[in-house]
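so my prof wants the structure for this chain in the tokens format not the other one, which i didnt know existed until like an hour ago. anyway here's the sequence
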Amino acid sequence: MVSLSSFIGMALVALGLVLTPGPNMMYLVSRSIIQGRRAGLMSLAGVAVGFFVYLLAAVVGIATLFTLVPALYTTIKLAGAAYLAYLAWGALKPGGRSAFTPQDLPPDPPLKLFTMGLVTNLLNPKIAILYISVLPQFVRPGHGPVALQSLLLGLTQISIAVTVNGLIAISAGTIADFLGKRPKWLRIQRYAMGGMLAAIAARVATT
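here's what i got, hopefully its the right format
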């Protein structure tokens, strides 16, 4: 069974990633601001399906990988730590575009909103690397079936990502207006998330 420390670690990573601006957040925020909350939530449904596609692929792949080549665990761990450090730098470095600066997008029907949310997530390199390099670090081969641990950890990540993205989609307009008038708060959010990701990267690399 998944250990409590692994659950907490995966939850912190998921929270840090979902609050770090990326393709999913920018698309959802833009849709919500331009076309309304319902459009943002319809897009989020597509994003959620994309998470499950990655999770099912990861469950099979991670179980096979650990069974056939256990020595690759260290390589995957270091790669995941390096990626988290890269995301931390992206949040902490000067400049950068806020996710709450909406893109100029034309209104779309519900099916296209769902499809674009799905495609945006499937083509999001941040999510691909999360399931390939980060999630395996919280799996402990001696704590039960690897596939089951991967599934539970993945569901933890999906629950956090969908919940936070849903709240962002619902309140995108209000948040954008708030941050637009208070750039200092936007910097604080970036530094807090960057610091969290950097701390997790250091822990993963040295554990």
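also thought this was worth mentioning. The two ends are 20 Å apart (CA to CA).
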